Amino acid sequence: MANEKNAPLPAGLVNDNALVSAVRNTYLTFLERRDALGLSNPGTFENINREVSRDVFLTNFMFTGLRAEWNKPISNSPIFQISHQLSMGAPGSMSPYTFSALYGSSRVFLQGTMENDGSLVARSNYRWNDSLITKTHAQIQSSQSMLSIENDYTGRDFTASLKAMNPSIIEGGVKGIFIASYLQSVTPSLALGLEAVWQRVAMNSSPEALLSYGARYKGSDWIASLQMQAEGPQGSGISSSYWRKLTDKVSVGTDLSLQFAPGLSGQGGLMGGGLQKEGSASAGAKYEFRASTFRAQVDSKGRLSCLLEKTILPAVRVTFAGEMDHLKQQAKVGVGVSVEAMSEDLMEQAEKGGVQAPAVPF
Prior knowledge:
Blueprint: H1 2-5, H2 11-16, H3 18-36, H4 50-56, E1 65-76, E2 79-88, E3 97-104, E4 108-115, E5 120-127, E6 132-140, E7 145-154, E8 158-168, E9 175-185, E10 190-200, E11 208-218, E12 222-232, E13 235-245, E14 250-264, E15 271-288, E16 292-299, E17 303-313, E18 316-325, E19 330-340, H5 344-352
Parallel strand pairs: 1-19
Antiparallel strand pairs: 1-2, 2-3, 3-4, 4-5, 5-6, 6-7, 7-8, 8-9, 9-10, 10-11, 11-12, 12-13, 13-14, 14-15, 15-16, 16-17, 17-18, 18-19
């Protein structure tokens, strides 16, 4: 911010041009008042409800069947490790064998995963400077492939993102999915933002555009967020989330969503039959113990899920997952074991704290 204030301008323009001088003074005044607010970075628009969706809820942790994972750290600085995973469960739920490798330094993050059927997933992040990070995600499968390129610019009190999924211009035009988002802190507690989506699946189809608005409010021990999707080809919607830290070890979260889609009339299925409304609600809790973490979640569709992660030994972690769908009368169970085979040298370095892991741009 100090560099912005002290940016030099030609002396003649500043001294002789009243308009340029007035604009510069107004800009400097704006920066001073902005500094006085003490605003912090609110994160990205995509993760506006990250405390609920990524920490409390089981979306990123749930699995079924049997899973065994063996991790082998090779280096702490830079971070380099490989892992092997064996799985057994319902067909299509998990790959029987997965090999992955991870590398991370202060500027670069690389991760590759290959399954037994040849499917490949690759991720790479590159930090150009303290504010700008480029992320790429490629997925190659027998049925379909996907490429995603994203740029995140993190300011002191805002985050701007630009993302392209499967972009292409080789068919005589532009197609793919393009997402631009911006989230700005306006007070120490409140952040406002928006997200614009433009997509075209094929050149013979019409492009579609969507616009969403978001707000995030942070209290002393709670966070609330609200997202509204404007009217589009697929309808509109609204979702809200609430997260609260009850104690140092216990946090809870809720999520409410309501979707409005164009209905069908009773004659021939033509559009114009009013709006179809569909809503859902979820609530979850997270308990952190000395050597274990327990998560539980229930939703309005009759599903009750829970997950327990317990560290038995410093290098061994056991995971139990279960889900009961009361409406469908179905139950799912998952059991996993993870072993970290760290060498004696790396273990000694970690205990002494001699080697500090780099700030990897995950």
